[in-house]
Write a structure and sequence with these properties.
This protein is mainly β. 5% of the residues lie in helices and 45% in strands. The chain has one domain: Jelly Rolls (Sandwich).
Length: 326
């Protein structure tokens, strides 16, 4: 792994585009529920709008948590462990430094992503850059469960730079989508990102624009609204949804339809996410996500005793966490 957190570890994940069934858009999914992500404190001084991982929506397999975060100067996420899951961090503005106990360091900036597979164990820190204007660093972090067979894999990173992300344009330019992971309007994403198959699409829709997006059948899916008002439709029923809402779709159906009113004052932006459900139990204690209580207890003992993947945590302290301004 290089200093920019790109891993040379072999990719052990499942294909992001299923080969079993063709993608279609004949049966738009209905909305199961929609709710506002309430802002709360997290880490050391960070503010997050959490939607998945709250009483409103828990363990929406394979998704464990979704945070829309704002990290002001002097705040951040100092040294902390993970085991058994993946994290996907998408930076919307600013820059965030990363450092782990194996000596890997890197930075993601506006429009970049980091895919981290924690596997058997990692201890790392995620800290914001200090912006000249004092503005916070804003992004989205999604926690994804790992299949039981991959929970003991070696940790892996894959940074995806903004310039690497393909874009598609539809509806006479009224719809633009960054194809981060998956497929949209005939455009495929970069491959070999997350081990657990996840689609991640960033849509911007101008007034009068209409989205018709296919999704893998049987996958769980949701949309998170970043700005504007988006109208989601199915069976001639339309529902307008304002910003900072999580829109959970029913599993039945093959696509989603979304639009912005012709006379709307502004465009809308939303993140559409879909993932392969994992048929396995979830036992989670903070950053440890396993398939039994005994495995969680073992993870805690391993972390405290510096064993079974956490050996390098003994005596380790990140520079970026140590230099944090309080």
């Amino acid at each position: 792994m290089s200093s920019t957190t790109t891993s040379s570890t072999a990719f052990h994940g499942l294909p992001v585009i299923p080969a079993s069934e063709p993608l279609t858009t004949t049966a738009p999914r209905k909305i199961q529920k929609s709710f506002l992500a309430i802002e709360q404190s997290e880490g050391a001084g960070a503010r997050v709008r959490r939607s998945i991982g709250t009483p409103q929506l828990r363990n929406f397999s394979p998704f464990l948590m979704l945070d829309h975060f704002a990290i002001p100067p002097g705040a951040g996420f100092p040294d902390h462990p993970h085991r058994g899951q993946e994290t996907i961090t998408y930076l919307l503005s600013g820059a965030v430094d990363h450092e782990d106990f194996a000596g890997h360091k890197g930075t993601i900036e506006t429009g970049d992503l980091q895919f981290m597979t924690a596997g058997r164990g990692i201890v790392h820190a995620e800290m914001p850059r200090q912006n000249a204007d004092g503005s916070p660093n804003v992004g989205i972090q999604l926690w994804v469960d790992l299949p039981k067979a991959l929970k003991a894999c070696e940790p892996r990173y894959r940074d995806l730079r903004a310039k690497e992300i393909p874009e598609a344009v539809a509806d006479d330019g009224k719809v633009k989508v960054k194809v981060i992971s998956g497929q949209s309007y005939g455009t495929d994403s970069v491959k070999e990102l997350a081990y657990t198959p996840v689609w991640l699409l960033d849509f911007t829709v101008k007034p009068g624009g209409h989205v018709k997006q296919a999704l893998p059948k049987g996958w769980n899916a949701f949309a998170y609204t970043l700005s504007g008002t988006t109208i989601f439709s199915s069976d001639r029923v339309s529902r307008p949804v304002e910003q900072y809402h999580n829109v959970v779709f029913e599993k039945e159906g093959d696509s989603i339809e979304a639009a912005v009113e012709e006379g709307a004052e502004s465009e809308s932006r939303f993140i559409l996410v879909a993932g392969l459900p994992l048929d396995q139990p979830i036992f989670q204690y903070g950053p440890f996500v396993l398939t039994s209580r005994d495995e969680v207890m073992q993870a805690m003992m391993d972390y405290q005793g510096y064993t079974n993947g956490f050996e390098r945590a003994a005596g380790w302290e990140s520079e970026i966490g140590r230099n944090m301004v309080h």
